[in-house]
Amino acid sequence: MKTHKILQAPIPMRWVGPMKLSGHLIEEKLSVPLATYETPLWPSVGRGARISTLCEEGIKVSVIDERMTRSILLEAEDAYAAHQAIQSLKARMDDLNEVVAKSSRFAKLIDINSQVVGNLIYLRLEFTTGDASGHNMVTNAADHLIPWILTEYPHLQYSSISGNYCSDKKATAVNGILGRGKYVVCEILIPRDIVERRLHSTPEKIVDLNIKKNLIGTMIAGGLRSANAHYANMLLAFYLATGQDAANIIEGSQGVVHADVRNGDLYFSCTLPNLIVGSVGNGKGIDFVEENLERLGCRDDREPGANARRLAAICGATVLCGELSLIAAQTNPGELMQSHLQMERK
Amino acid sequence: MKTHKILQAPIPMRWVGPMKLSGHLIEEKLSVPLATYETPLWPSVGRGARISTLCEEGIKVSVIDERMTRSILLEAEDAYAAHQAIQSLKARMDDLNEVVAKSSRFAKLIDINSQVVGNLIYLRLEFTTGDASGHNMVTNAADHLIPWILTEYPHLQYSSISGNYCSDKKATAVNGILGRGKYVVCEILIPRDIVERRLHSTPEKIVDLNIKKNLIGTMIAGGLRSANAHYANMLLAFYLATGQDAANIIEGSQGVVHADVRNGDLYFSCTLPNLIVGSVGNGKGIDFVEENLERLGCRDDREPGANARRLAAICGATVLCGELSLIAAQTNPGELMQSHLQMERK
Amino acid sequence: MKTHKILQAPIPMRWVGPMKLSGHLIEEKLSVPLATYETPLWPSVGRGARISTLCEEGIKVSVIDERMTRSILLEAEDAYAAHQAIQSLKARMDDLNEVVAKSSRFAKLIDINSQVVGNLIYLRLEFTTGDASGHNMVTNAADHLIPWILTEYPHLQYSSISGNYCSDKKATAVNGILGRGKYVVCEILIPRDIVERRLHSTPEKIVDLNIKKNLIGTMIAGGLRSANAHYANMLLAFYLATGQDAANIIEGSQGVVHADVRNGDLYFSCTLPNLIVGSVGNGKGIDFVEENLERLGCRDDREPGANARRLAAICGATVLCGELSLIAAQTNPGELMQSHLQMERK
Amino acid sequence: MKTHKILQAPIPMRWVGPMKLSGHLIEEKLSVPLATYETPLWPSVGRGARISTLCEEGIKVSVIDERMTRSILLEAEDAYAAHQAIQSLKARMDDLNEVVAKSSRFAKLIDINSQVVGNLIYLRLEFTTGDASGHNMVTNAADHLIPWILTEYPHLQYSSISGNYCSDKKATAVNGILGRGKYVVCEILIPRDIVERRLHSTPEKIVDLNIKKNLIGTMIAGGLRSANAHYANMLLAFYLATGQDAANIIEGSQGVVHADVRNGDLYFSCTLPNLIVGSVGNGKGIDFVEENLERLGCRDDREPGANARRLAAICGATVLCGELSLIAAQTNPGELMQSHLQMERK
């Protein structure tokens, strides 16, 4: 075998569903492709999907923000000079966007956040990036901005194209607070009898376990902006099946489950403030990825960004299906292991 | 296309290397398989690998701890009863291991850590698991332990098989502090002239950028036990190519780069306290995975655990290669984007 | 006024209570001194105290662990040498305790935890320290241990008496996970009618607000091992009144409120895993401090450590009183501000 | 002794200095009052202060942001309704400020940040508050805003006056990222010979220890936006002496030391992004507080906010003095303990 030949790592993949989605972006039933070595994930997500089809509004999905970020690192003479340069830059968004426009048709600078540490400047540039997740687009935009900034502000010095205040693929708080990727909230209202018959649990038990495990348990583990059982599993499988940079499950998996008993029924929600997905760009040229995106309806002729938001909505709903199913299973002693064993024996 | 058929998601994969490893576990040159949509990763890791072959000891790898964990969640009458039950359980490791032995030939309970919150008990059971990463093994062990505990301590109540104090696939502090997976440290000493000629940088620039980007930048981003540029990318690609549960890059990517100028040369180290890998178990039956593991020498006839430690060592060295290469690139304005563009045009 | 004269900053102080305590350490009613500029704290804690006297068991307090820590920072040749030195040291607890004994009658080394980063060694030495909070005692013990270690392990080098892995007065996760100070849990069961009549709220409202504010709210704020409304206020006031090093409210305030509706009544608990207090030592020679400690019954003739545990128990109960009162107040729109205004007008 | 009488807790206090300050706010030498039980702090800060007088520009202080926050907690029907309400509110800053104006002459709403979790709304209201630290001012403003919001948006429901996304007196990331209190940066350039003669260290040693202890050590401890040795000590002592709510050292102590060798000299900086201080308001009516504030020149006739910024600048410089002194001491084995012993024997 020659070392430098491009080979393939074929990951097992299955379509799971259908699940039922509603909300401001999407109203339909659809199945999703999940590529993973952890094949018990398929029936687990499948169970959640079936539940959604039994609920009046299914999974209500809201996509309430989107941006991709890159934090460049510059140095000034001292902290006050750093502050003044930042203030000046923030007041010149139009000038900056002119430079950005030369790097891409789609990138648009929408906000700047910053930190000053001693004389160091961490400038978090925040862009909309159309249907792309936007990693390269914002790096390219930053690469155009840096020489312009250094010319306009000759007392500043280059330190790095990325100062880790972006933050890309790290467990940080900044992405949730300032935004990175799509901010997706998925909600479902499940009648009590469906919880009892299909999940072999009760709304009270699920709410209780969410508090003790996802909220308190993660918190005492020293968790950071995270309260869920296994967002990471669904994200990985969905990302691999749709050509996403799956290392972004690091920030994507930092999200919160909030559940509540409402009039005896179960309100269950998954908030994903940092869901990074794109329907075009790197990883998307591969045949099976194209097919999957098309089948998900995310390669249709829509305004820039709409296909990516649709993809984010579907991804979020998939996370909810898997999360609901696992939490319900863990309310019953022995159920988790049994289902793993059954699956593996198949 | 029928929904429930098992399909494949073929991820592009390439062997990269060779890299040179040394240390208490391994002394050889070898290449590694990396499966990823982010193909610029290949030449990036390849550059680091080449550097390693030019250094006297190559990448020195130490694997200094290993364990897999599951935290069960129980409830007592009050906090003091919770405390007393924990104290009693900690004093009965032999009894517990008898129960564990019924669940697996390989699992061995080596430590228990705990937290009490009100009357809740979070019991973090820590096992060695042979050559398996051990997720299912510890779940199964916990599933055997729970009924035994509830019988022996009838005043305790079941709450969950997992209380998120494990912590599996979440950004937390507990894994780094108490251990989960292999604790791997990789170190390299690179002569100044190699840094200058091959990385187009200097030891001073690389040390400086590590401080400002990885240490300070991640910290102000609200990072948690994390100071690196892109561990996640190498982990994902290595995990996919070797049949690992890649969602474990969440905790795996929480690690620290420490660099130093030593007598004019560059000391560069990557510490990975939570590297979860296995050479057997789930995901390993697939043909290309078996081939890759064999070619890496991780399916040889060794004592239980030795193949997995070898795999962890190789994985850690791969992370160092990619990390070194990116940090060096970012010391030069424009270099990162240029190399991405070159790669994509190919 | 001459600069170097020792002056006084007289902080307003009031005794608040009585509150009712029960549990394995203490069964009595007592009042507590609180010194603070934020005088609305007095009636707030007072309200919680009154509630406790109306509950059958009052506030049940458990003190389930105690230790004080200092993390020295050493360097080895490489990571593996670092690991081997640590393993050797952990196997020689008796030898180490001989050295410790020369530094203090009370300090006793009970555990060692460690981290290796590259070739750096962070050695977290954990001691019991009798009735003292123990900051100086452990620094002194470490100061005796360091030369001994450097002699026994001549390939190690000194880097610092403190490597911040202790961690003293910083917001970290290590203290909660490995322990620092007393681990105190306070619980109370409040009959529904008392919640309604005295707190003008309901068990359901208080449980609900604890989830949404203390658990979810703190978590999305990027909180670290923290889920409470204002532990810090009670700790500061109690610390100042009893001669404690009040900068330790940093770690002391990292704790969790867990509340639950039980048979229609309110279960409310405050867990404080890092409560650093001492009944002797620095800050204790001052007259009013001595008087306060005596009146609290924390200067009685008891076995070493018992007075400090008693003090920790009382401090924890005080935190519960204030926390309960504020959470209850915030369930009612306008109540918080109104009570502040009333207090300030007095 | 009657329980409800107001007593006093006289904390030992000393004026320390003079220190030399420069920058956009202040150019002078002055001493500072420090009230603490930890009296070795006085000579420690004193040593740093003396160093500052030997440096050409002394301590250069920049105050680059200020705000006080309160996060109210509301509920909507679902996430999308939550999002729409937030968007509408953010577009009505003038309307909101009209309501705020009724609550205070000084409070001015300058920004709103938000989080949506399921159907929950965390609305972080950010105000300037003149010379007051502003806790009560923003609570009062929020208390006026809530009924107005509930009237204008009748589909929203009250949940709490504070949702912990503020975040007051908790170890979180949000305050550093979005701002709370004054954002203060203090920098000093110390000639090598002064470092050697006065601090018995070298620039290289201090830079090195800052990296290994403050940056790496805190990070592996699971630290959150924190990299310093003991900010908390100086803050506590300064806060008590100037009538501040000292529980705010929780967020105040989350800051970063960045040090560098520059042309052989030592650049040493302390960044404090969350320094909460006020020159008027609660705690300020007490005689010794008034005297201290006057002597610090923080009760002069200036535009609203200027006295508080001056106070923040002085506080920040005090933190730098103590931090520099301790870090330098820890570069030398045994020095820390020795100085404590000397102090206590006095």
Please describe what this structure looks like:
- 4 copies of one chain form a homotetramer.
- The first copy, chain A, is globular, with a radius of gyration of 22 Å.
- In chain A, strand 4 and strand 5 form a beta hairpin.
- The first copy, chain A, is an alpha+beta fold and 346 residues long.
- In chain A, strands 1, 2, 3, 4, 5, 6, 7, 8 and 9 form a 9-stranded mixed beta sheet that branches.
- Helices cover 41% and strands 27% of the residues of chain A.
- In chain A, helix 8 runs antiparallel to helix 11.
- Chain A folds into 2 domains: 216 residues, Alpha-Beta Complex (3-hydroxy-3-methylglutaryl-coenzyme A Reductase, Chain A, domain 2); 94 residues, Alpha-Beta Plaits (2-Layer Sandwich).
- At the A-B interface, strand 1, strand 2, helix 4, strand 6 and helix 5 of A face strand 1, strand 2, helix 4, strand 6 and helix 7 of B.
